[in-house]
Known about the structure:
The protein is an all-beta fold. It has a domain at 27-110: Rieske [2Fe-2S] iron-sulphur domain (Rieske Iron-sulfur Protein, 3-layer Sandwich). It is 0% helix and 43% strand. It contains no helices and 13 strands. The chain has a 5-stranded antiparallel sheet with strand order 1-2-3-13-12, with no helix packed on it. The two termini are 22 Å apart. Residues 64, 66-67, 69, 83, 85-86, 88, 101, 104 line the site of FE2/S2 (inorganic) cluster.
Amino acid sequence: MDHRHGFRRVAGGLSVTVATRALVRLCGTESVGENDVVRIDVAGRAAVAVSRWDGEYFVSDDVCPHAEASLSAGYVEDGRIICPVHFAEFDLGSGDVHNPPIGCGKLRFYPVTIIDGAVFADLG
Ligand code: FES
């Protein structure tokens, strides 16, 4: 048990559990540069996007809630992830949308934990 984080390590450190939550290891922190967004494929579910802004990491769905665009093909600016197709802007963390095209909702974000230089998220 890692008392610093309150997590129990399992399966060679690739995942951890906290109560009934399961965290998934997505990538090393060095894989996502400042103001960058990277697509991560996850077994058994749709890909996620890992973004970094002002030294903080965020994990969201990779597909834009408006259409089938991959947000990891977009960019991060002023605390928002920008869709590359119709340029909807989503607040990092809350997913609130700005300048949305008709029919575009919020972007779903997931709780993030950094453990030993890796980005984990609760994708439940
Ligand atoms: S596909 Fe992303 S805003 Fe339209």
